[in-house]
Write a structure and sequence with these properties.
Blueprint lengths: L12 H11 L8 H15 L17 H13 L13 H15 L14 H15 L6 E5 L3 H10 L3 E5 L6 H7 L1
Parallel strand pairs: 1-2
Helix pairs in contact: 1-2, 5-6
Length: 179
């Protein structure tokens, strides 16, 4: 990576301001892709690495324990020899239920842990289900900044939605906006 200035904290404000200005982006309303391009440019100019969460992928190397578990699942347990059952892999569903109990203090039966091929599909299904649980509650509320695709999913499903932006609502102001 080429360096304009040595990486140090705080970052050189002039360099960051120049990058944002050249990108032509308002950071208060920037899309995920716009933010991604700005951060790429900052990384390159300042020779720094950010933990990246804009697409849910932090850019960190996988933990060796996870690699070994994946190899074990594929080779030893034979999970790669056939398509997963329609209702999901029983062990994965049991572990999802266990995770909900241990980390979220929620009792969710394994049968209710729904397999998806990613967060976007999972959110799509969740929006469709949540919008039909209680007919008296007809609007999905998004707390932004969020993932703009979710609003597109609402439009596709014909669901009304509203949004509250954290940029303008902090602390008590957010609480007042929610009630």
């Amino acid at each position: 990576m080429a360096s304009e200035t040595p990486a140090r904290l705080p970052f050189d404000r002039k360099t960051v301001a120049r990058i944002v200005r050249e990108a032509g982006v308002d950071l208060r309303t920037a899309s995920i892709r716009e933010m991604n391009r700005v951060v790429d440019a900052i990384e390159k100019a300042l020779d720094v690495r950010f933990i990246r969460m804009e697409f849910g992928i932090p850019g960190l190397p996988p933990n060796p324990i996870a690699i070994d578990a994946e190899i074990d699942a594929l080779r030893v347990r034979g999970l790669a020899q056939h398509y997963a059952p329609f209702d999901g892999v029983p062990l994965l569903k049991a572990e999802a239920s266990r995770f909900a109990r241990l980390f979220l203090d929620l009792e969710i039966p394994p049968a209710c842990c729904v397999p998806t091929v990613g967060a976007m599909q999972g959110c799509f299904v969740s929006l469709a289900i949540a919008s039909r649980i209680d007919p008296a509650r007809g609007t999905i509320l998004f707390l932004d900044p969020g993932f703009p695709v979710n609003k597109q999913q609402c439009r596709f499903l014909g669901l009304p939605f509203d949004r509250i932006d954290f940029y303008d609502h902090r602390g008590e102001k957010l609480i007042r906006a929610l009630v």
